[in-house]
Write a structure and sequence with these properties.
Blueprint: H1 14-26, H2 39-55, E1 61-68, E2 71-78, E3 98-105, E4 127-134, E5 145-154, E6 164-169, E7 174-176, H3 178-184, E8 192-196, E9 199-204, E10 212-221, E11 231-237, E12 240-249
């Protein structure tokens, strides 16, 4: 945003801005949002300003309708007064083909999210997933922190995967620290993260065929437990949820803390 509205001629920085726009596009989560409610409107405004600067984009004035079997199930209006607003509606659970119609001017982005559960078959998945845990030392009676490294790779038929979602459940009595995770957002390894204790969602940009991406997080002791069970990590392709992988990880030391 600073470059787009700054004093320097922006067309001299076209390549840099194009890479930035591509990165921001990859970092949207499955709902079209970014890392926080504060970051989302700023990022959308920057994307709109980029489109205006290089594509001559004008303020939109459009109507969008979603129909199933000829019946309208949702309608949206996008104009100058709400172009910065991310609009959303819950669609009825209707069987059939969803069709999206557009009238007017502008380039609004529209997407339909559908969630369902599917059995993960490791042998058939183009995604692979590994988790390695390490503690600073296992000599102490109580281990208050340990690090986990998640690695995922893609070896499918397409040139690259869709955006990936890694779901990690915290081990018994531990929680995933937010600070080290947010540091990963400054790299191209993780686009966004959402915390919903005991589950943390990591949103990754697409992987090229044969590419492997790793990132780490830290777990801290929250409540001592007499038995620490294995925790699960899954990864799935947001464009094709059937492409998924599964792994388990646990407290790295053989001893467990007592209640």
């Amino acid at each position: 945003m600073g470059i787009l509205k700054g004093p320097n001629p922006i067309h001299e920085l076209a390549d840099l801005l194009a890479r930035g726009a591509q990165w921001m596009s990859n970092c949207q989560d499955s709902n079209g949002f970014y890392s926080s409610s504060r970051a989302t409107p700023v990022a959308i405004e920057a994307m709109i300003e980029y489109a205006r600067s290089f594509d001559g984009l004008q303020s939109p004035d459009a109507k969008i309708a979603v129909t199933v079997g000829g019946n309208v199930v949702a309608e949206f209006t996008v104009n100058e007064s709400n172009e910065m607003l991310v609009q959303s509606k819950n669609l009825p659970g209707v069987h059939g083909i969803y069709r999206i119609s557009f009238q007017g001017k502008g380039r609004p982005t529209f997407q339909i999210n559908h969630e369902f559960y599917t059995e993960i078959t490791k042998q058939e998945s183009p995604l692979a997933l590994t988790v390695v845990t390490r503690a600073p030392s296992c000599a102490e009676e109580i281990i208050r922190t340990f690090n986990s490294t998640i690695c995922t790779s893609y070896n499918g038929n397409q040139s690259q995967s869709g955006p990936l979602v890694v779901t990690a459940r915290s081990p018994t009595g531990f929680y995933i620290a937010q600070g080290p995770v947010y540091k990963a957002l400054s790299t191209d390894k993780v686009c966004d993260v959402k915390f919903a204790d005991p589950i943390t969602y990591f949103y990754l940009p697409p992987l090229k065929r044969g590419e492997k991406r790793c990132f780490s997080f830290t777990s801290y002791l929250q409540q001592r437990a007499s038995r620490i069970q294995n925790s699960t990590v899954t990864v799935h392709d947001s464009d094709n949820p059937g492409n998924a992988a599964y792994a388990e990880y646990r407290y790295p030391c053989p001893k467990v803390s007592e209640e």
